[in-house]
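Quick one, probably user error.
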C-alpha cells in the first residue's frame, strides 16, 4: 500500500498540523502505508499561498505517477482549502487513486451556509471527489452528508493523541490553561470577562496562562485594559518542548469556544489527566461527559463558566476524580493506536 498525505506545512500552526505529525511520527503506520507527505499550503499572503499551492499541485501529480500511489489522503478545512484539496482529489482520481478527505474545520458549517447557491454547488461537487470523508464526530457526519447530498461515504474517526502509561496530573498545580488562538471564536473574551468578575474570589496563588497565536496582536492590551495583569499571563505559542512542563503546572484547561471540530487541546490535556471545562458544541460532548470526566457549558454562558471555575479551583478531590476519568477516556477511546488502526482499516476497505 502506498499512501500520499496532503496537508499544511510547518508554518501553519494549529491542530491540523498536529494531526498530520501524529501520522508521520508513527513508525508502524508509516511502514504499513509507505507514507509520503506533501504540504499544499503555507502561511503568508495570497500571492505566496497561490504559488506554493500551484507548485504543490505539480509535485503531487508527479509523486502519484512516480510512486504508484494507491490512496491520497487530504486534510481539509473550509474556504479556499475545500477548492484546493477538491482539485487535488479530482486529479488523484483521474490518475487511478482512491481519495480520503479528512475534514478539520470548526467553521465549515457557518461558512457553507453563507455561500451563494452556486458556491454551495461547487463545494458539494468538490467534496464528492472523495471516496470517503473522515468526520471528527457524529454531528459533523450529518453536516457533510447534507453537503454531499448523501452521495459520499462518511466515517467518524476521532482525533487521537499519544497516551501516557499512567495519569500524570499534578493536583497541586496552580495554573489554569487556555491553549488556543486568541480569537473571539475560541471564547477568549468570555474567559477574560469571567476572570474579571470572580478575581476577588480566586486564591492569590492561582493564575491563568494563555498560549496560542495572537493574530490581532491585542491580547496583552485586553489584559491590561481589564486590569488583569497580576493574574493573567500571555505566553505566546506553546512549543512541543514546553508542553510537558506546562501541563505539569496546569490545574485546569479551559476552552469556551463557539465552534469546533474535536479540539486537540482537549484530548492532549485529558491524556495528561488535566480536567477540562469546555463548551457543549460539535464533537466535544463525544469526548467530555458533563460532570463525569470534565464539565460542559453553553457558549457565551459566562455566569456558568464562573461557577465552574470557582468550584473546581476550590475542590481538589473533585479535580482528582475528574482527572482519573479523563485519563481513562482518552486511553480507551482516543488513543493514537486506536485511531491508526481505524484509518488502516478504512484504507484496506477502499483497496478491497
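Nope, works fine. Designed sequence:
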Amino acid at each position: 500500500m502506498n499512501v500520499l498525505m496532503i496537508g499544511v506545512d510547518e508554518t501553519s500552526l494549529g491542530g491540523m498540523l498536529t494531526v498530520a505529525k501524529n501520522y508521520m511520527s508513527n513508525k508502524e503506520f508509516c511502514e504499513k502505508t509507505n507514507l509520503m507527505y506533501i504540504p499544499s499550503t503555507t502561511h503568508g499572503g495570497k500571492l505566496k499561498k497561490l504559488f506554493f499551492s500551484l507548485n504543490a499541485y505539480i509535485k503531487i501529480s508527479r509523486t502519484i505517477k512516480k510512486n504508484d500511489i494507491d490512496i491520497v489522503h487530504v486534510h481539509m478545512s473550509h474556504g479556499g482549502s475545500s477548492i484546493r484539496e477538491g482539485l487535488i482529489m479530482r486529479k488523484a482520481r483521474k490518475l487511478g487513486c482512491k481519495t480520503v478527505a479528512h475534514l478539520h474545520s470548526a467553521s465549515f458549517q457557518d461558512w457553507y451556509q453563507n455561500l451563494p447557491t452556486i458556491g454551495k454547488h461547487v463545494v458539494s461537487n468538490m467534496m464528492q471527489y472523495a471516496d470517503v470523508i473522515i468526520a471528527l464526530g457524529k454531528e459533523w457526519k450529518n453536516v457533510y452528508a447534507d453537503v454531499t447530498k448523501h452521495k459520499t461515504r462518511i466515517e467518524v474517526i476521532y482525533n487521537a493523541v499519544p497516551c501516557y502509561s499512567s495519569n500524570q496530573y499534578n493536583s497541586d498545580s496552580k495554573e489554569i490553561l487556555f491553549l488556543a488562538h486568541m480569537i473571539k471564536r475560541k471564547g477568549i473574551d468570555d474567559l477574560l470577562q469571567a476572570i474579571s468578575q470572580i478575581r476577588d474570589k480566586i486564591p492569590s496563588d492561582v493564575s491563568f496562562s494563555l498560549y496560542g497565536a495572537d493574530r490581532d496582536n491585542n491580547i496583552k492590551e485586553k489584559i491590561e485594559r481589564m486590569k488583569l495583569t497580576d493574574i493573567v499571563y500571555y505566553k505566546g505559542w506553546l512549543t512541543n518542548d514546553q508542553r510537558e512542563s506546562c501541563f505539569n503546572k496546569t490545574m485546569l484547561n479551559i476552552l469556551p469556544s463557539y465552534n469546533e471540530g474535536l479540539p486537540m487541546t482537549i484530548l492532549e490535556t485529558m491524556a495528561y489527566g488535566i480536567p477540562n471545562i469546555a463548551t457543549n458544541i460539535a464533537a466535544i460532548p463525544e469526548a467530555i461527559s458533563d460532570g463525569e470526566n470534565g464539565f460542559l457549558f453553553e457558549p457565551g454562558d459566562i455566569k456558568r463558566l464562573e461557577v465552574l471555575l470557582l468550584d473546581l479551583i476550590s475542590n481538589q478531590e473533585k479535580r482528582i476524580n475528574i482527572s482519573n476519568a479523563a485519563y481513562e477516556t482518552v486511553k480507551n477511546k482516543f488513543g493514537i493506536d486506536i485511531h491508526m488502526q481505524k484509518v488502516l482499516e478504512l484504507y484496506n476497505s477502499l483497496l478491497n
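Residues 26 and 229 are 41 Å apart (CA to CA).
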